[in-house]
């Protein structure tokens, strides 16, 4: 699955995107975040405060309990405010 990072998540990880094949036990966005946080100290830090993160699967906003099956893109970003 292609992971796409925006704003402070991208800055913390030092990359715009990456590809991961999640293990079979990763079923939801929350599971994916738990697994991603174990991949490096940078991932753990970037994903530590989930209350300040939003998620999209295939460009549709989702919550942490959304199933990832069938999705090809997973975006992680902070909340956006207008200005």
Could you list some keywords that capture this structure?
single chain; 83 residues; alpha+beta; 5-stranded mixed sheet; 3 helices; 25% helix
* Strand order in space, largest sheet: 2-1-5-3-4
Coarse shape: globular
Structural class designation: alpha+beta
Round the mean pLDDT to the nearest integer and report it: 94
Uncertain runs are: none
List how many beta strands DSSP finds.
5
Helix content: 25-40%
Descriptive notes:
There is one protein chain. Helices cover 25% and strands 23% of the residues. It has three helices and five strands, in the order E-H-E-H-H-E-E-E. The chain has a five-stranded mixed β-sheet with strand order 2-1-5-3-4. The protein is globular, with a radius of gyration of 12 Å. A hairpin with a 2-residue loop joins strand 3 (54-57) and strand 4. The N and C termini lie far apart (32 Å). The longest helix is centred in the middle third of the chain and has 8 residues, at 29-36. With 83 residues, it is of the alpha+beta class.
In short:
This protein is of the alpha+beta class. About 25% of the residues lie in helices and about 25% in strands. The longest helix has 8 residues, at about 30-35.
């Amino acid at each position: 699955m292609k992971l796409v990072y925006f704003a402070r998540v991208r800055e913390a990880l030092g990359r715009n995107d990456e590809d991961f094949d999640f293990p079979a036990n990763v079923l939801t966005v929350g599971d994916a975040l738990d697994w991603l946080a174990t991949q490096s100290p940078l991932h753990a830090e970037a994903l530590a405060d989930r209350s300040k993160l939003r998620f999209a699967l295939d460009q549709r906003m989702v919550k942490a309990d959304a199933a990832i099956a069938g999705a090809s893109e997973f975006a992680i970003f902070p909340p956006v405010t207008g200005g």
